[in-house]
Amino acid sequence: GVIGRWEVERKKKEEDAHLMVPLREAVGLQGERVIVKVPFSPNDLLIWKQSAGAYREDPERTARVVKMVIKTQNLDWNDLQVLLDTIMDSTEKEMVFKAMTEKAREMIRLRLVDVTVNDLVPRKYPEWDPNSTGGSRRLKAYQELLTEGIRNGIPKTLNWSKLYSVRQEKNESPN
């Protein structure tokens, strides 16, 4: 009946809710810890897009949402590109990549890392293996750079109305 079908649908939704994480820990054939990919749903993307809001209006909010999604879902490089394509237009995405590239160059200049800009901010699928220490570390670095790139991708604008509201008194010096 209707109640039985509803119960099956409810259980299916509960099961689906547990399959949202793209990179999830599992046990390998020899009992070792392995990372496996479990795809997220289009509905997840819709929710994240709504949560992120308009990037140009509030880059900080978008960065917080992306950081939360990364933290809870552990997105790989491809998933991050899908997320960006969902929450941003191509111009916004380019601004983020520009900010990421600038940060990567700064890290290289300060000798914080011993790799190239392309290693830190690959534009093509880098084939990082999340089961290797190096691949996992590179993915984490990319996730952090991405969050920072989102936060800093939109140039900060001056609030001219606040600037014009500042008045110098007759007895004050201009310095």
Automatic annotation (TrEMBL):
The record's annotation in InterPro entries points to: Gag_P30, Retrov_capsid_N, Retroviral_Gag-Pol_poly
In Swiss-Prot or TrEMBL terms, this protein is called: Core shell protein Gag P30 domain-containing protein
The transmembrane segments are none
Which parts form a coiled-coil structure per UniProt? none
One GO term under biological process is:
virion assembly
Locate the Core shell protein Gag P30 domain: which residues?
Answer: 44-174
From what superkingdom does this record's organism come?
Answer: Eukaryota
The organism encoding this protein is Catharus ustulatus (Russet-backed thrush)
Kindly name one Pfam family recorded for this protein.
Gag_p30
Q: Which PANTHER family match?
A: GAG_P30 DOMAIN-CONTAINING PROTEIN
